[in-house]
């Protein structure tokens, strides 16, 4: 009866209150059958409603094979013309990019441990459909993220894991992680304020903390400030992702090559002539390399958007802890 209550309630909220998305905490505590019925009920009302949740349990209440967790979630299928089925948070790319949330000092791909976390990062870039962890999804049903309400904010995590780096270096790490999320299949997600280097002063579980900890400090968004420039970068990445669907289309073929220890060249092919290429340099030294053909640069470590920044070919330099994102002429705006 409680399963019926869940199904009836979620459908009611979507129909009567026009909610366009639902998020389930510790979704692995629910069973697959109930969550499939939720998916069907909600998507019968609104085929574009987004459904996602935490694909872990923090304990168990039912047999593992029946849990709506990361390992089993691909068994849930979309109803009719639904936008998708039910997505799960991708903790592989979360910890792969910035280091484990359970060890404040651990480093990730963006913060000094690129080689060790390469597989986890590419698992997220491919939308959870390739080797990289113990679970898989279909149709890019992953929520790729670095920070949420739990654990340290991204900025605080970088302060704790990389205390000897400068704020400028940590800012580069932050931007690199954001860029990787935005060139990945699946759904990008970040904690409110991540785009303005939000800090909670190292409070990693602030549900019981004061407004002084939890409030977003909008005063930092002053023209020319580090926080303001970071916000503009995130805004540009959103624009780039919206305009260039090659980064989100499930039919896009993604391949990658490792040039050095964690240095990546990721290529995208939409099958219709559209191609993109991303060169990722996670190291603290500039990277000289050579690219074949002429490409249109739409993002680097400081700016991003839909407009072409420059046309480049041959010998290029990828700045330290940054990316260069290119599209071919068929896609260029």
Which terms would index this structure?
Immunoglobulin-like, 8 helices, alpha/beta, six-stranded antiparallel beta sheet, five-stranded parallel beta sheet, 333 residues, 2 domains, TIM Barrel, globular
Topology (SSEs and partners):
Layout: H1 2-16, E1 21-24, H2 32-45, E2 50-53, E3 87-90, H3 91-98, H4 114-125, E4 142-145, H5 154-161, H6 167-182, E5 187-189, H7 211-214, H8 226-243, E6 253-258, E7 264-269, E8 275-281, E9 287-299, E10 310-318, E11 322-327
Parallel strand pairs: 1-2, 2-3, 3-4, 4-5
Antiparallel strand pairs: 6-7, 7-8, 8-11, 9-10, 9-11
Helix pairs in contact: 1-2, 3-4, 5-6, 6-8
What does this molecule look like?
By secondary structure, this protein is of the alpha/beta class. It folds into two domains: 2-243, TIM Barrel (Alpha-Beta Barrel), CATH 3.20.20.80; 250-327, Immunoglobulin-like (Sandwich). Helix content is 29%, strand content 20%. The protein is built from eight helices and eleven strands. It has a six-stranded antiparallel beta sheet with strand order 6-7-8-11-9-10. A hairpin with a 5-residue loop joins strand 6 (253-258) and strand 7 (264-269). Helix 3 packs antiparallel against helix 4, helix 5 (154-161) packs across helix 6 (167-182) and helix 6 (167-182) packs parallel to helix 8. The longest helix is centred in the C-terminal third of the chain and has 18 residues, at 226-243. The relative contact order is 0.09.
**Element order, helices and strands?**
HEHEEHHEHHEHHEEEEEE
Question: What is the C-level CATH assignment of the largest domain?
Answer: Alpha Beta
Tally of individual domains: 2
Q: Point out poorly predicted stretches.
A: none
Kindly state the percentage of residues in helix: 25-40%
Read across the widest sheet, the strand sequence of neighbours is 6-7-8-11-9-10
Radius of gyration: 20 Å
Q: List how many beta strands DSSP finds.
A: 11
CATH superfamily of the largest domain: Glycosidases
Strand fraction band? 15-25%
Helix-and-strand structural type: alpha/beta
Which geometry do the CA atoms define? globular
Q: Please state the second-level CATH architecture of the largest domain.
A: Alpha-Beta Barrel
Separation of termini? 54 Å
Total number of helices? 8
Average predicted confidence as pLDDT: 97
What's the story with the biggest beta sheet?
6 strands, antiparallel
CATH topology of the largest domain: TIM Barrel
């Amino acid at each position: 009866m409680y399963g019926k209550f869940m199904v009836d309630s979620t459908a009611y909220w979507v129909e009567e209150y026009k909610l366009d998305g639902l998020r389930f905490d510790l979704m692995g505590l629910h069973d697959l059958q109930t969550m499939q019925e939720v998916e069907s009920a909600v998507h019968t009302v609104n085929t574009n409603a987004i459904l996602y949740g935490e694909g872990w349990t923090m304990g168990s209440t039912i047999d593992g094979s029946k849990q709506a967790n990361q390992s089993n979630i691909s068994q849930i299928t979309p109803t009719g013309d639904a936008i998708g089925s039910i997505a799960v948070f991708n903790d592989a790319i979360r910890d792969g990019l910035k280091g484990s949330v359970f060890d404040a000092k651990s480093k990730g791909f963006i913060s000094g441990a690129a080689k060790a976390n390469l597989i986890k990062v590419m698992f997220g870039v491919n939308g959870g459909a390739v080797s990289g962890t113990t679970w898989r999804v279909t149709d890019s049903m992953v929520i790729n993220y670095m920070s949420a309400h739990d654990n340290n904010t991204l900025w605080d995590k970088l302060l704790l894991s990389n205390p000897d780096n400068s704020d400028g270096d940590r800012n580069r790490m932050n931007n690199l992680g954001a860029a990787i999320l935005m060139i990945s299949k699946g759904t990008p997600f970040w904690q409110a304020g991540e785009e303005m280097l939000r800090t909670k002063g190292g409070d990693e579980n602030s549900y019981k903390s004061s407004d002084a900890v939890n409030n977003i400090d909008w005063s930092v968004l002053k023209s020319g400030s580090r926080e303001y420039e970071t916000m503009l970068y995130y805004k540009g990445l959103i624009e780039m992702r919206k305009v260039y669907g090659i980064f989100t289309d499930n039919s896009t073929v993604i391949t990658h090559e490792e040039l050095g220890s964690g240095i990546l060249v990721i290529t995208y092919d939409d099958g219709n002539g559209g191609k993109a290429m991303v060169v990722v340099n996670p190291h603290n030294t500039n990277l000289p390399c050579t690219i074949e053909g002429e490409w249109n640069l739409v993002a680097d470590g400081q700016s991003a958007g839909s407009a072409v920044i420059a046309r480049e070919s041959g010998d290029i330099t990828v700045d330290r802890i940054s990316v260069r994102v290119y599209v071919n002429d068929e896609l260029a705006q």
